[in-house]
Amino acid sequence: KPRLYSGMQPSADSLQIGNYIGALMQWRGLQNTYDAFFSVVDLHALTQPNDPAELREKTRRTAAQYIAAGIEPSRSTLYVQSHVRAHAELAWILSTITGFGEAGRMTQFKDKSQRYGTDATNVGLFTYPVLMAADILLYQTDIVPVGDDQKQHVELTRTLAERFNSRYGETFRVPMPVIQQDTARIYDLQNPTSKMSKSAESDAGVLWLLDDPKVSAKKVMRAVTDSEGSVRYDRESKPGVSNLLVIYAALTGRQIPSIEDEYAGRGYGDFKKGLAEVVVAEFGPVRERALELLDDPAELDRVLAANAARADEVADRTLGDVYDKIGLLRRA
Ligand code: ATP
Ligand code: MG
Fold it and tell me: What is the ipTM of this complex?
């Protein structure tokens, strides 16, 4: 089977629905046809300030949400990044073949460093894409399903793989990003021109998977729209309504025009009420399952440990090959 790699940062107590629609829904469908590796990328999360106890908790919670959303740890390899040491080791090697300017062109770094300011921006945020390249390349990955915000990072991963292969001989498989175009980007409900994110400054426009259903419904009802009053997809002049339509369509599997027809001549209130119901129906069960799993952290930790052992095997093989190729002396 071809390989698949993807991951999410445990950067909040809950995932947000952009993560669900842009990534988890695809992962769930692809895990049957691919030998899939799904990681909770806790090393990446260290690029933001963290309370140690909270980080541990967020890591478990993220893993539980993967499983609750339908990732099967008996079929796919679902593990915690820091459990597999090869990630950090390969990242170091790859950083030595990455250009400073090349890394500086990454828009996620530019966005986040601008938001935090120079003093609060750490070097880890700058080398984030190099660690991500290591994540992907360790598993000889064929495809990387991500939201379109990560496309540039996967492109860099390809460049680094090709560069290494041409300097030292065939070592890495060159991965392809897979981006579901129509749901590639879910926007913040209060600020529908910026991406919904776990680490958004305000969570008023973020729909959390683990939110109480009542809270989610309320957030949908308060979503920013426009004064036109018609439920119509138009990204340019109606970003708020268009975003809600995309969410509605993604969660129901319906086409946008059919939803527009259903709500033709009705106000935004009706439309939002309909969407709130859809959101609650989809996430209610996911939330319950996740909370159930979190009731037994010891069992969850056992599952993660078994999966990390599986990941270790594949990752160590690649890392050993890299060390040999690049000229590190083997320990006798
Ligand atoms: P952070 O703010 O901490 O970066 P995030 O919400 O951007 O959190 P990530 O852990 O960076 O989440 O990304 C996890 C996955 O979710 C990636 O595949 C990413 O492309 C996807 N993703 C994140 N936000 C969205 C979004 N708004 N729409 C669609 N996909 C998204
Ligand atoms: Mg992100």
Answer: 0.98
